[in-house]
Specification:
alpha+beta, four-stranded mixed beta sheet, globular, 108 residues, 2 helices, 30% strand
């Protein structure tokens, strides 16, 4: 699975709209053992609490990419871009780490 290709496709189709409208940027970091690892950088226009943000972003990634449809969970790293001018998770302090388990039996 080519994560860079998935990230490019996600940016072209979805992420640029989230970024312009709400100041939110997401990126798939890794996909191991059916778990998504996603970084989320939120901007000033985003007022949704971290746990709802994590759930919304994780479900969005899983439901919009066929390669990720068998994911059973996600680990979301949320950083706030209001504090720093940096653009990557490694340069911004992670404020929240959230784990999501998808409801496998209801096929969400």
């Amino acid at each position: 699975m080519d994560i860079n290709n998935i990230n490019k496709r996600h940016f072209r189709k979805y992420d640029k709209y989230y970024n312009v409208e709400f100041g939110v940027s997401t990126k798939l970091i890794d996909y191991r053992n059916c778990i998504l690892f996603i970084e989320v950088i939120i901007g000033s226009n985003w007022s949704i609490p971290p746990y709802k943000t994590a759930l919304e972003i994780a479900k969005h990634w899983k439901n919009t990419h066929p390669e990720l449809k068998y994911a059973i969970g996600a680990k979301i790293f949320i950083a706030d871009s209001k504090d720093e001018d940096k653009n990557t998770i490694s340069q911004i302090k992670v404020k929240h780490k959230k784990g999501i388990l998808f409801n496998f039996w209801n096929k969400n």
